[in-house]
Amino acid sequence: MKIKREFLICTAIFVLMASLPLFAIGASYGVDKSANTDMSAVSSDVKSSKPENKAEKTSSKAESKKAESKATSSVSESSQESHVEVSNGDKISADGKFKILDTSTNEVLTLTDEEFLIGAVAAEMPPSYETEALKAQCVATYTCYAKKRADERDNPHEELNGADFSADLSKKQVYLTPDRMKEDCGENYEEIYSKYKGVVECVKGEVLTYKGELITCTYFAISSGKTDSFKDIFGKDLPYLTAVSSPYDAFAPNYKSEKNISEEDFKKAFEKSSDKVDFSEKADKWISNIKLTDSGSVKSIKIGGIEFSGSKVREILGLRSACFSIKYDNEFQFEVKGYGHNVGMSQYGANEMAKEGIGYKGILEHYYKVKL
Q1: Are 128 and 183 members of one domain?
Q2: Rounded to 5 degrees, what angle do the CA atoms 356, 372, 214 make?
Q3: Torsion angles phi and psi, residue 197, rounded to 5
Q4: Is residue 134 located within the same domain as residue 215?
């Protein structure tokens, strides 16, 4: 009996100690205890976009949690000085309508803010994502396009034909029309549409502002493990868009990708982009002076003697991100991490945070240096 009692006591202590990192993660992110998660139960027909490998993921994820907790703790401290906050968007809602120039038809589509946000969030995140991640996306999306709308109406461009911005809706850019959503969702359309609508209703009118003005609100699919600052990628210093840790992204499907490009195709691609590149040397000498950001993305690189930004190389070669490494062995071999420009909110990272119980405000706090 004595041995059994001691065994039970040891077991209880072990369980308690194992739970402490989880509480630390929640505290460092700022769990939104009042977050409404009732909508997170979607039909079992709506499958998760993330394959699970539980045995492998459990041990690796524990290490990521420690790194995430430490990184987020420092973010929380530095965000104390930030002037970014979630504000009610009544003052920037304009006439409550968005106008999109559909470049596939050259027609202007007019939508209410709510109609637009339902289709815009659907275009950015799958319905299998956690409700709190969808809320964070909704606030980010509204901030992004409310700013575009305000900027365009202050300084209209004739080519937009009175619209606030343009998009090729036939390619599901920016906004999913109800017809396209029905096509994608099939018999689950009503349930999925209801989930997106509920998300929009929960955070309707909320935007991110800096000193009373809408922020430049960027987001993307999957980070390299750490996001980049706006300054490193786009050249302008924005205090609310700095590099932050996002380690869960390493578990994303297709986190790493590879692309092999022949000498001839490589040469043609850059000669098409610039008439100043010089490929007179041997191919293994074409690339030099690679400079990286603190997050590991290529900031600049010389190709054929001409300097290109990592983002430009990504665009020219059709890479998934600017976080890439290059090897040459009779052809150029690229290994790429993440997907997107790597600035602002990682959508995959936001969903993983939501799975850990972090509310949408905690997610926004982390990625946008917000203190709420």
Answers
A1: yes
A2: 110
A3: -65, -40
A4: yes
Containing structural domain, residue 195: 84-219+344-368
Asked if 90 and 204 sit in the same domain, the reply is yes
**DSSP string for 12-53:** HHHHHHHHHHHHHHHHHHT--TT---GGG---TTS--SS---
| Residue (of 63, 85, 75) closest to 29 by Cα position | 75
- How far apart, in whole angstroms, are the C-alpha atoms of residue 18 and residue 338? 31
152-181: average pLDDT: 96
pLDDT by residue (tens digit) across 72-129?
444 444 444 455 666 655 556 678 999 999 999 999 999 999 999 999 999 999 999 9
The residue type at 213: E
pLDDT tens across 167-191, in order?
999 999 999 999 999 999 999 999 9
Residue 35, strand partner residues: none
d(CA 256, CA 296): 14
pLDDT attached to residue 89:
52
